[in-house]
Amino acid sequence: MTSKDFPTVEGSVFFPGDEGYDTELAGFQTAYRHRPALVVAARGAEDVRIAVTYAQEHGLPVAVQATGHGLSVASEGGVVVSTRALDGVRIDSETRTAWIGAGVQWGRVVEEAARFGLAPLSGSFPGVGAVSYLLGGGVPLLGREFGYASDHVRTVEVVTADGELRTVDAASDPDLFWALRGAGHNFGVVTAIEVGLVPVERIYGGGLLFDGKHAAELMRVYAQWSATVPETLTSSIGFIPYPDLPFLPDDLRGRYVAHVRIVFNGPAQEGERLVAPLRAVAPRLSDDLGDMPYTDAGEIYREPPFPHAYSGTSVLLDGLDEDAFDAVLKATGPEADLMVVLGVRHLGGAMSRTPADGGGAVGHRDAQYLVHLVTPIDGNAELEAARSVHGDVRAALAPRALGRALLFEFGDGERASQAQTRSGYGAADYRRLAQLKRRLDPGNLFRHNRNIVPATD
Ligand SMILES: Cc1cc2nc3c(=O)[nH]c(=O)nc-3n(C[C@H](O)[C@H](O)[C@H](O)COP(=O)(O)OP(=O)(O)OC[C@H]3O[C@@H](n4cnc5c(N)ncnc54)[C@H](O)[C@@H]3O)c2cc1C
């Protein structure tokens, strides 16, 4: 296969060995990467249409990459559509919506929306691709008040397996519109999404950092406290055994810490009152809670901004069993053989309610907490060790587990399994998705993801 065989596109097409092939495929996850027969760096929806049609005609699977944060199964020999140049953002302040190209990162949308006193339902890290996040449901910083980010999607522009560019909304194709809002990675290459914005300019937010020796006590207080807070407050707690590395800030370097993150859409005075029980647990290593613009909310989680190799997993829980967490903290704390970053996000509130329009294919909406684990890895031995610890944690939490949050599953490479994908959805929803997959992608062109296999019955 050579560039001569491929139709002309506005963007670029790279084959193995071409200058630009590796750069186009480099992403945030560095444990592995796609190795396709060709990568199409799309410049517009028409390029995507040409790439999908070509793949269909040549029997090649199609994978998609924006930032590479959520790379699951790597493509070997297929077509990769790289969306990073689909970088348009348009805010409509009248309809309070954003039109977001497939290559756009949340940080951009946050900045653009803020000019109009609006905010998107973005997540903790501004570098994450907005479109993939929305297609997977999206757990927002303001989730308990406004629900899953995908509940706010109005229109999806997508190239389906038949090579057709469709504009999908609730009226045009209700089934596909439902699937695209929670299981969207399986149904095509999305070129842009129109999504609702919320009128939030400032929040009361930030983090409370504690020495990890208070971890068990903090977890107990957090479990009880979080069950009492209003829906306008969304929070999480992280437990992080930081390595002793020079590039880390002094308050984190070589320390096991507990980090409570707060996002409250309300007056600072009320926020202060609400967080008082957490502040009372122990002296804080740092405390930057206060009034802030939403544009600074991407700093709250203090997530590493540089590409690295990592493995991660998740458990959605219907509630917190405090005793189980003692075992989890032990397995993931500083005595563990490898670094495990443990996060517990408070869900519930509006996220647990089905929106008036029926919502999308978000899995396990009734979950009240999301536990996620991430381990930086260096090579296969560490990957296996990480999988083993992550599996132990999932087992410890199994009695209250509803399933997994597929957006928070990282680095599974070849190991992505049917069971893993199924666990992201309720059984009836998974069946509906598999049937829809049979209608729209019977040849499973889009299988280099957490794959929903087309139904056969
Ligand atoms: C540091 C960090 C913080 C995070 N915080 C949050 C959070 O707060 N809330 C939350 O919900 N999630 C969060 N996530 C998870 C994140 O939403 C997913 O990893 C998401 O898939 C990343 O999308 P991406 O475009 O950045 O990554 P990519 O790796 O480029 O895309 C991930 C996958 O999405 C699919 N895909 C991408 N673009 C398209 C497209 N245009 N059409 C069809 N399929 C596509 C592909 O299968 C691709 O492999 C976080 C992840 C990280 C690493």
Largest beta-sheet characterization: 9 strands, antiparallel
Gross geometry: globular
The CATH architecture category of the largest domain equals 3-Layer(aba) Sandwich
Strand content: 15-25%
Radius of gyration (CA) equals 21 Å
CATH fold description of the largest domain:
Vanillyl-alcohol Oxidase, Chain A, domain 3
Low-confidence stretches: none
Rounded mean pLDDT is 96
* Helical segment count: 12
What's the order of the H and E elements?
EHEHEEEEHHHEEHEEHEEHEEEHEEHEHH
State the name of the first-level CATH class of the largest domain. Alpha Beta
User: How many separate structural domains?
Assistant: 3
Number of strands: 18
| End-to-end distance | 36 Å
Give the proportion of residues in helices.
Answer: 25-40%
Structural class: alpha+beta
Report on this structure.
By secondary structure, this protein is of the alpha+beta class. The protein has 3 domains: 3-82, Uridine Diphospho-n-acetylenolpyruvylglucosamine Reductase, domain 2; 89-199, Uridine Diphospho-n-acetylenolpyruvylglucosamine Reductase, domain 3, CATH 3.30.465; 202-413, Vanillyl-alcohol Oxidase, Chain A, domain 3 (3-Layer(aba) Sandwich). The protein is built from 12 helices and 18 strands. It has helices spanning 21-25, 45-58, 106-114, 130-135, 143-146, 174-180, 215-226, 268-279, 322-332, 380-397, 418-422, 427-440, and strands at residues 12-14, 38-41, 62-65, 79-82, 89-92, 97-101, 153-159, 165-168, 189-196, 202-211, 233-241, 256-264, 284-287, 290-293, 310-317, 341-346, 369-376, 401-403. The strands form 3 sheets. Strands 10, 11, 12, 13, 14, 15, 16, 17 and 18 form a 9-stranded antiparallel sheet that branches. Strands 5-6-9-7-8 form a 5-stranded antiparallel sheet. Helix 7 (215-226) packs antiparallel against helix 9 (322-332) and helix 9 (322-332) runs antiparallel to helix 10 (380-397). The structure holds flavin-adenine dinucleotide. Flavin-adenine dinucleotide is lined by residues 27, 64-72, 83, 102, 123-125, 128-129, 131-133, 135-136, 138-139, 185, 189-190, 303, 407-408, 449.
